Amino acid sequence: MTPSSAGKRALITGVTGQDGSFLAEQLLAKGYEVYGLVRRLSTPNPTNIRHLLGTLHLLDGDLHDQASLESALRRSEPDEIYNLAAQSFVGVSFNQPVVTGEVTGLGALRLLEGMRSRADKARFYQASSSEMFGRAEHSPQDESPEFHPRSPYGVAKVFAYHAAVNYRESYGLYVANGILFNHESERRGLEFVTRKITDAVAKIHLGLASKLTLGPLDPRRDWGYAPEYTDLMWRILQSPSPEDFVGATGEAHSIEEFVREAFRCVGIDDWPQYVDHDPRFARPADVDRLCGDARKAKERLGWEPKVRFPELVRRMVEADLARQKLSAPPTHAAS
Ligand code: NAP
Fold it and tell me: How many CB atoms lie within 10 A of CB 302?
């Protein structure tokens, strides 16, 4: 891909999240002027973007609030809009289905409406999700929209996906969906299962915890490394015409495999003795297996993930070990 990005302007919603922070870094490195939408919190949470403060323009706004989105679009005058903000945790979506629908679903529609009236020459990326496939009939899953979501999060993402396609078809706007399978990193929120595992494994290794409590270990996901997926987001918006693309590694691994691999990184083979099962972590409906087919992204955008499963787990465990060592010195090494 030939970057001709200098002087371009990008607006990122969800800039404080895992993906938003990696994308902001990558766009700044390409010479973009980057604007990030930040919602008001009683205690601001700049952890993921602290190192970018000063180079990144922050704009107040909330996906609940149309006026704030239009103001952000007016002030940033974006060439590219990346809609990454969401209530993004599947588990919470069962307890907060209406908030999830409001932010993850209607929030995307509000931003599309804002684009239509304030930035109709911009290119719009919608962060769609493999959770839309849910109980899919076919595997691996490609760009065919054969969705059967199994959570309020998945339902909200399906709504946003179709809103994006509809704005593309109805108004001729440049709107593209990236249908990304799970992607993780050392910046993943601690409530997500991968990060919960690597954080606990680091603590157990350092003698700071004795147990990791999990729900079902059978679900299989296609896990990649987040910075490679934010690079894909950018590539999707460089395509001459707006189209939807899947991002995935093409490999599915179970949660149990993730746990085993994480303990292996700290030299613990008898991992089951450290793991408790709590049925309360099971969801009312779950997705057994998701595995993506990203051939279109490879052929058309030259995108291919390089970080594979064992390397992903190792990076996350090492980052959590380093973080834990900084905050508390080891008292006992379990290996
Ligand atoms: P994340 O770390 O949970 O970040 C979500 C972001 O949305 C945060 O910056 C959060 O701000 C912001 N946000 C939440 N509610 C908001 C609201 N009402 N108004 C404005 N901002 C709000 O998620 P991620 O992993 O980076 O994922 C980025 C996007 O890709 C999400 O839409 C997610 O659903 C989607 N996606 C992720 C994956 C994955 O595996 N990571 C896969 C497919 C799709 P605060 O910091 O203030 O909470």
Answer: 9
